[in-house]
Automatic annotation (TrEMBL):
<feature type="domain" description="PTS EIIA type-2">
    <location>
        <begin position="497"/>
        <end position="640"/>
    </location>
</feature>
<dbReference type="InterPro" id="IPR002178">
    <property type="entry name" value="PTS_EIIA_type-2_dom"/>
</dbReference>
<dbReference type="InterPro" id="IPR016152">
    <property type="entry name" value="PTrfase/Anion_transptr"/>
</dbReference>
<dbReference type="InterPro" id="IPR036634">
    <property type="entry name" value="PRD_sf"/>
</dbReference>
<keyword id="KW-0677">Repeat</keyword>
<dbReference type="GO" id="GO:0006355">
    <property type="term" value="P:regulation of DNA-templated transcription"/>
</dbReference>
<protein>
    <submittedName>
        <fullName>Putative licABCH operon regulator</fullName>
    </submittedName>
</protein>
<dbReference type="InterPro" id="IPR036388">
    <property type="entry name" value="WH-like_DNA-bd_sf"/>
</dbReference>
<dbReference type="Pfam" id="PF00874">
    <property type="entry name" value="PRD"/>
</dbReference>
<dbReference type="Pfam" id="PF00359">
    <property type="entry name" value="PTS_EIIA_2"/>
</dbReference>
<feature type="domain" description="PRD">
    <location>
        <begin position="288"/>
        <end position="394"/>
    </location>
</feature>
<dbReference type="InterPro" id="IPR050661">
    <property type="entry name" value="BglG_antiterminators"/>
</dbReference>
<dbReference type="InterPro" id="IPR011608">
    <property type="entry name" value="PRD"/>
</dbReference>
Amino acid sequence: MSRQRQDQLLSTLLRQGDWATAASLADQLGVTPRSIRSYVAAVNARTGDADAVESGPAGYRAGAGARRALRTRQSGESAPRDRLHGLVRTLLDVPTGVDVFEAANELHVSEATLEADLSRVRGLLEGTELTLERDREIVRLRGTEAAQRRLLSRLAHDEMDAASFHPETFRRALEGGAVAAGSVAPFKSALVGELGELGYYVNELAISDVLLHIAIAAERVAAGHALEAGPTGAREEIPRVGAVIARLAHEHFSVTLGDGDSSHLASLVLTRIVAPGEDAAGDVARSGVDPAVETAVRAEIARAAEDFQVDLVDETFVLRLALHVQNLMRRAQERALTRNPLTRSLKTSYPMIFEVAVSIASGLHDRLGTPIHDDEIAYVAMHVGGRLERSRKAESILTATIVCPGYYELHELLRSSVDRSLGSAIEVTSVITNVDPDWASFDTDLVLSTIEPGVVGDRFVRIQPFLTDSDVDRIQQAAARVRRGRRLTRLRAELARYFDADAFVYPLPDEGEEAIIRRLGGLLVTAGLIGEDYVENTIVRERMSSTAFTDALAVPHALQMTATRTAIAIGVADGSAAWGEGRVQVVALAAFSETDRAAFQTVFEQLVEVFSERDSVQRILRRGTTFETFLDELVAVIDG
């Protein structure tokens, strides 16, 4: 039984956070409901005092022991991946070589199994600057110390829970003994504090990667494998930061780092987890960024602002992003992976912001030649989102009328309370003190009334003269309904224009994302709406970053808006189809035209929102096996 499948089940349940049926989980994992039940039993066997997966009439959900089960190895467990990683660590620890026959005995496997593992090791070493040499029964690993450390980091990443950092990860990843798991957290706190005193902002989302490298360095130095020299072209800040790391490593790990290691780790810190403080940002960017990088970033920001009609052009934003891209290029030169635990949630919750980031990353790749993977794109998206947040908030503010029949200054107190509690989301534009107002005349988004409204509707909210917490909650819920209703109304109108009965496929074959893109794109090509170049550009976009924005939906599309008119081809799987590293149930290939920029944001963002709700997805999939029923169910879900 696959440990990987069991972990996928746990990760899916943790991500959803609610009950899920065996059938829906089976669709997402591409297995049968019977297999799901077997996985649940195996997962629960990992924990003793708390179920990892709870069962009930509604299906399954993550239990109290779910995260612990992800990190637990059962007694005697020797999964192929664990055995492979153990063999690689042995090769790293013994530079003189390992006897194949002795290693097979120690791992309690046959010589044939070990030979197969060695073949897998060779595959793992591709592109690492490391080679596996063999002299009869002796095998040894050859390569630089830096390359060996990168391999250790890769093994640890393979074993880590993608969205969290646990000391248990270090125990399994390092297994050397020089660094105690309990000393990592105090080291991290001290490092963050001292970097703050030096005037740096610390990126806590990426710090686990750097801590892992520091722990690996401490282990390797303790074993007598130090780096001889630091990075070439060292920046002036490196000695200062390196001295801090060396001192803290000695205090917390009892390891003495040489100049090579302290300089290397300082470079990692400066390029991965810190940014200059507000006052120094401009100066650091000007002095530490290649003019060609700044020029490329400035041009791509201007292009993205024009293409997506968003407010991005700002000098501070340009300089901060240029500094980030410069550091990104340094990481790429070292082939260093930086993970972002928020990548998936950013893609699902803010698909439009993520798409702007993909567009910028694509342009930077063309201009600078630097590959930018999903986690790096997510960091660019965070920069973009931070820049757009203020304008997005302004657009989301709703207007409100307060109806409060006058008695002394009661209406003034109520308005003050509303402003104080909800001022960031609601703007009160008028206060009515009549006991019999003309309810139909109010044109604000919300009407907050201390008396029973004369009409019924989502925008009318009954509140108390003295605002209570319950009143605030009801107003917020009504505001959310109004915003959602507006968005989905726009979506419903757009979908009627862009869906086409001749561009609907059921059941969608499980043939891989590129084949699916060609299948759905071919329908739009036949209709004369796009050319073959749009299909190829969609595949190029997909290779940059998966367009599976939810567990159920992928929205492949090209960055270029070259369609004759905006159109969407729909494919619905009978179960699910493989897409990137996961599986989806619906694929909506979107072709946008230059004249429909507004539609791009409306359709793209809101379609993702609809398919983020699992109950809605299951309703659509149960009945949407023809174009007519699919569209009917989608519209019904939108109408609520």
